[in-house]
Amino acid sequence: MHEATAQVRAHALDEAETVAASAGGGAAILPPDAPVRLARPRSQWRDVWDQFRHHKGAMIALVIFTLIVLFVLIGPSLWHIDATHVDIRARNKGFSAAHPLGTDQLGRDMLARLMVGGRVSLAVGLTAMLIAITLGALIGVLSGFFRRLDGPLMRVTELFLALPLLPLLLLMVTLFREPLSKHFGPALGIFLLIVTAIGATSWMQAARIVRGEVLGVKEREFVLAARSIGTPNARIISRHVLPNVMSPIMVAGALGIASAIITESVLSFLGLGFPPDFPTWGRLLYDAVDQMQMYPWRVILPGIFISLTVLCVNYVGDGLRDALDPRIRGR
Predict the structure, then answer these.
(1) What burial letters (b/e) apply to 252-290, b meaning 16+ CB within 10 Å?
(2) Which residues are CB-contacts of 73 (< 8 A; sequence separation ≥ 6)?
(3) pLDDT class for 291, splitting at 50, 70, 90?
(4) Gap between the Cα atoms of 15 and 33, Å rounded
(5) How many CB atoms lie within 10 A of CB 197?
(6) Strand intervals (E) in 210-311
(7) 77-82 long-range contacts, Cβ below 8 Å, gap at least 24?
């Protein structure tokens, strides 16, 4: 009797599995204790990269900017001519196998000077951007999160926005050039002076952008919930506010690199930048102005590198803005 009942139950179970398999398109039924593998959720940065790849202008700019960075970083290791070597017998030479981009009025190789000058210009842009973004993000977060600090910090920001920045930069360079050069050396002293001056006069836009984002984030439900359980303000800022305002900070940082490179080139073009034996793209322009009509490529070459770098950085910043802002994705 028990054997017959067991056979009937086994037969019924086989029929149920057959029906379920045919209804599910032939899919086999997993045993109850089989492990279920859940799909790994996509990360936010993977989504940002997928969106960024669809911005054709930003991708082309990223490739060109990467080539420029490789040119200035790896190039001096492959091209062994010293950028400061003076060869009077080879001065004012045109394009040749020995000097593919010619030489300047002192016989210095232009290709080597473009590589070294690009390295310095990019270092100035990155360092000044980090100073400006750090200062701007700090002031923006404090102003947006703490109501009692909003008024004083925004008045200071508006004061800096009202100042004529180029005369202020010229004044700072004129006052502190000699003391810093004596203390740190001509190259390092001027580098510290220029990056500090540019960073200290270009943080205002980042501060206002971050403040606006913080004003919206601090009223969100998760921030209010963190406050309700007694979470300290410092932890709320580090865990909840800063991660949600990183998008505008990154975009402002990308655009700040271009602005810093342009500012350094202007200072060097005016003769207030690095010393003559320490080339930058702006310094190359300054040295070539007097002979621009006879040797125009000396102005065109550094001008092309400055323009390409700034244009690429601006396009990359535009692509980052579209990728990081979900409200304008797909446009």
Answers:
(1) bbbbbbbbbbbbbbbbbbeebbbeeebbbbbbbbbbbee
(2) 119
(3) confident
(4) 21
(5) 23
(6) none
(7) 79/111, 79/112, 79/115, 81/109, 81/111, 81/112, 82/109, 82/112
C-alpha 258 chain-centroid distance: 9
Tally DSSP H helices, then E strands, for the chain. 13, 0
Structure token pair of residue 305? 């590198």
156: confidence class by pLDDT, cuts 50, 70, 90: very high
Residue type at 234 in one-letter notation: A
Task: Band the pLDDT of 14: cuts 50, 70, 90.
Answer: low
Give the whole-angstrom CA distance, residue 247 versus residue 323: 9
Half-sphere exposure of 303 (CA within 13 A, CB side): 12
Contact between 89 and 107 under an 8 Å Cβ cutoff? The reply is yes
Q: 45-54, 132-141, 166-175, 181-190: which range is least confident on average?
A: 45-54
For residue 12, pLDDT over 60 is answered with no
Distance in Å from the first CA to the final CA of the chain: 73
| Residues whose CB falls within 8 Å of the CB of residue 282, separated by 6 or more in sequence, listed in order | 121, 264, 265, 266, 267, 268, 269, 273, 302, 306
Q: Which residues contact 204 (CB under 8 A, 6 or more apart)?
A: 136, 157, 160, 161
Contacts of 22 (CB under 8 A, 6+ apart): none
Rg (CA), the chain: 30
Tell the residue number behind the tokens 């700034």, with chain if given. Answer: 310
Residues 300, 117: contact at Cβ < 8 Å? Answer: no
* Phi, psi (rounded to 5 degrees) for 231: -70, 130
Q: What structural domains does the chain harbor? A: 46-78+109-328 (1.10.3720.10)
